[in-house]
Each structure stands twice: as structure tokens, then as C-alpha cells.
Write a structure and sequence with these properties.
This protein has three domains: 1-78 and 123-170, no CATH class; 206-275, Orthogonal Bundle (Helix Hairpins); 284-430, Histidine kinase-like ATPase, C-terminal domain (Heat Shock Protein 90, 2-Layer Sandwich). It is of the alpha+beta class. Strand 6 and strand 7 (423-430) form a beta hairpin. The chain has helices at residues 9-49, 65-70, 126-167, 182-238, 244-275, 288-306, 325-342, 372-375, 399-409; strands at 284-287, 309-310, 320-323, 348-354, 359-365, 413-419, 423-430. The longest helix is centred in the middle third of the chain and has 57 residues, at 182-238.
Length: 436
């Protein structure tokens, strides 16, 4: 197995920047020194071609690979002196007028000693200058590389820490977002992904909890009718109910319980299809006022027997929508059945329609109402606001949830508001029929 040294991204980036800076410095300085060498070499060639003017040319400049990397090791400060009588054609420099010469009262100024011609004016050895320049360049490059590496890898480290937190299950961790570059875009995308995954996990947990609660509720709802069926069927089988009246009561109980079980199974199937969005709908152009009038007419007899005043649907122009008439009638039947069952004797139930966009249907009563603590749970499966008030009723506890699911499947909305001792109001909104 080949050994691969472990280095961080910051180290690799710093070394890369350092290498680029050093190479750039070497190439630029080497190119500059080469241009100087070429100019000095051309000047020497010119001096060699004119010995009458330049009897003593400058030395041949040296330039090799070391000079290319670190610069020339010798710098010529001045040209070698030329004799004043080098050529008869040369003009003598103008002589200064002695009268123009300034007079000095004091002692003569000491003459400065000039270095011998052709020698460099460097008091420091050339190798010290070379190494100091190299060390300075390396230090500057190292500082620049470290700063740039840290600047570029800081957001990358934050991304790595965020990814590690998400991998460990800490979806509440958020990466700090600064600026507007590619790192920021990746950080924002990772934060958004974490939020979506967290929301999805929470939704799945809630769904799992609802499923567990639904199974517990179904088991609870089935326990009573199954027990009744077992008791009655056992009595018939053992001959305990040989008396005609007892036999009739037992058979009636079995029929009622079987009907209740059939309704419960039917509601459970519909609820499952609604949750899976697999409930078939057959929408068509219908008059909502006509459908509501038929539902109210069908519930009149039961409302009268219960002592409920069920008001007919107000007459008016047709309210046309595009919907499944059977499903809309199922929703209205459920709402009217709940109002008749729970509003209380002498309560008044009204069904009103508003032809607008969206279309509105209101089913309201002035009965007992529902206390505020139960409103938030009224659409939960098998939930009853007051089970003691309705002992042994045949409702499955799924009606309101199915009704809301059917309305939402039509693209509408169902809301319920209620105040205790003042009544309940259910409002349905459905998309209006678009004009062709």
C-alpha cells in the first residue's frame, strides 16, 4: 500500500501560493537582470567598436543561471575614466574663467576620495545581499501564502464542520453565512437542505405517531362491537336467547353492530385513500344550490324526530361549480348529521350559499357549540368533543376528517369555528367555475 502523507487543504494552498510567488519573483527579477546584462553587453560592444573614444572599455559582464536566480553578483557603478586627449578631433572642454571662480576665505575643503575606477561600491559582501534578498522574498511569500490560505480555507472549514454535524444527526446546526461567493452559496444550500431534511423527519415522525394513534383508536373502536357480536352470537348458539323477544333483540343488536362495523371499515378505507391521494373523483358541472337542497330535504325527517329545526336552503340563482356531486353531497350529509346529532334539541341549523370566487357554503347552528380546548383536535381521527353526551352513537369519529379531505381534494378549504353555548359554524370554500 502506497503511503500518502496527510496534509490539510490550507497547507497545500499555502504552499501553492508560496511557490507561485517565489517563481513569479524569480522569473521577473531574472528577466530584469537579463535585460540589464544585454544592455551592458551592447554598450561594451559599442565601446570596443570605437577605441578612439573609449580606449578602455568596460569589463565583459558575467551572467549565468545563478545570476538569473539571485541577481548579478557585481554592479558597475561608473564608467572607466577616459583620457582628455584621446582624439585630436575631440574638442577641449571650455575653460572656466578664473574671474568667475568663487573665492573662499576659509581653508580649502577637503577632497573626497573616490573609489578606484571599475570597482563596485559595495561595503557588504555580495553573498550576504543575495541571501538577504532571498530570505526577505521567502518571508514575504510565506506571510502572503499563510494569510491567503487562511482566508480561503476558513469558509471551507466551516463547510466541513457543518457537514460533520449533519452527518452526526445534528440537523439544528447552521453554517455561518458571510459575503456572496461560491462558499456562501454552498453554505446556504447546505443550511436549506438541513432545514428541509429536519422538517421532513419531523413530518415523518408526526405521521408515524398518527399511525400509531390511529391503530390504537381503531382497536378501541372495534373492541366494543366485536364484544357485542361475540356475546349475542354466543347467546344464540347456546340457546340462552330461545325466547322470541330475546332472540329479536339479539338479532337486532347483531345487525346494528354489523352496520356500524361496515361503516367504520368504509370510512377507514376512504381515509386511507385520501391520505394516499388515491380517492377517485368524477368532477362535472353541477349546481351547488340544487345539491345542497337535496341534502337538506333528505335530513328533514331525522331533524324533526330529534327536535332540530332544519331550515331549507334559500332560493336563488344557480351556483355552478366543477365538482364530484356524490362527494360534495357526502360532505354536506356529514355536516348536517353532526349538527343534528350534537346541536341539541330546539337548535336551528342553516345552510347558506354565496356565489363568489371562491364559492362559499356555510352550515351553522345555534346549539351547544364546542369548547375552545376541543377545537384544535376536532379533525383528529375518532375524536369526540363530548363522548359522555353521545353514548353509543353510531358515528365513527372520522366524518369531519374525511369531509375536510374531500374538500381539499377539490382544491377547496373547510374550516370550523365554534363557541360554547353559542353554536358552531362550518365554512367551505370551493373554486368557482371559470368562464369559458
Amino acid at each position: 500500500m502506497r503511503f500518502v502523507p496527510k496534509t490539510s487543504v490550507r497547507t497545500r494552498l499555502m504552499l501553492s501560493i508560496l511557490l507561485v510567488i517565489v517563481l513569479s519573483w524569480i522569473l521577473s527579477s531574472g528577466t530584469a537582470y537579463y535585460l540589464v546584462y544585454r544592455d551592458v553587453h551592447q554598450l561594451r560592444q559599442q565601446m570596443l567598436s570605437r577605441p578612439d573614444i573609449y580606449p578602455v572599455p568596460i569589463p565583459e559582464p558575467a551572467f549565468n543561471f545563478v545570476d538569473f536566480l539571485f541577481g548579478p553578483r557585481q554592479v558597475f557603478r561608473e564608467m572607466p575614466p577616459q583620457p582628455s586627449t584621446a582624439s585630436p578631433d575631440m574638442k577641449r572642454p571650455p575653460q572656466m574663467d578664473n574671474r568667475a571662480a568663487p573665492e573662499h576665505d576659509g581653508p580649502p575643503e577637503p577632497q573626497q576620495d573616490n573609489p578606484p575606477p571599475g570597482e563596485p561600491q559595495n561595503d557588504v559582501p555580495s553573498w550576504i545581499l543575495i541571501y538577504s534578498r532571498v530570505a526577505t522574498a521567502l518571508i514575504l511569500a510565506l506571510v502572503a501564502g499563510t494569510w491567503l490560505g487562511r482566508t480561503f480555507t476558513r469558509p471551507l472549514s466551516a463547510l466541513a464542520a457543518g457537514a460533520k454535524a449533519f452527518h452526526s444527526g445534528n440537523l439544528g446546526h447552521r453554517i455561518e453565512v458571510e459575503g456572496d461567493d461560491e462558499f456562501t452559496q454552498v453554505a446556504s444550500a447546505m443550511n436549506e437542505m438541513a432545514s428541509r431534511v429536519s422538517n421532513q423527519i419531523s413530518r415523518l415522525e408526526r405521521d408515524a405517531e398518527r399511525r400509531r394513534q390511529l391503530l390504537a383508536d381503531v382497536a378501541h373502536e372495534l373492541r366494543s362491537p366485536v364484544t357485542t357480536m361475540q356475546t349475542m352470537s354466543g347467546a344464540l348458539a347456546d340457546g340462552v336467547a330461545d325466547d322470541p323477544q330475546r332472540r329479536e333483540r339479539a338479532v337486532t343488536s347483531l345487525v346494528n353492530v354489523s352496520d356500524r362495523l361496515a361503516n367504520l371499515v368504509s370510512d377507514l378505507l376512504e381515509l386511507a385513500k385520501l391520505d394516499l391521494q388515491e380517492l377517485p373523483l368524477h368532477p362535472k358541472r353541477i349546481d351547488l344550490r340544487e345539491v345542497a337542497s337535496k341534502c337538506v330535504q333528505a335530513c328533514m325527517q331525522r331533524a324533526g324526530d330529534t327536535g332540530i329545526i332544519l331550515m331549507p336552503v334559500p332560493s336563488g340563482s344557480p351556483v355552478m361549480i366543477n365538482a364530484d356531486p356524490d362527494r360534495i353531497a357526502q360532505v354536506l350529509d356529514n355536516l348536517l348529521d353532526n349538527a343534528i346529532s350534537y346541536a341539541g334539541q330546539d337548535a336551528q341549523v342553516n345552510v347558506d350559499l354565496i356565489d363568489s370566487d371562491p364559492v362559499k357554503i356555510m352550515v351553522s347552528d345555534n346549539g351547544h357549540g364546542i369548547s375552545e380546548e376541543h377545537i384544535s383536535h376536532i379533525f383528529d381521527a375518532f375524536y369526540r368533543a363530548d363522548a359522555a353526551r353521545t353514548p353509543g352513537d353510531s358515528h365513527s369519529g372520522l366524518g369531519l376528517r374525511i369531509a375536510r379531505g374531500l374538500i381539499e381534494a377539490h382544491g377547496g378549504k373547510l374550516t370550523l369555528t365554534s363557541k360554547e353555548c353559542k353554536g358552531t359554524r362550518v365554512e367551505i370554500t370551493l373554486p368557482a367555475l371559470k368562464a369559458e
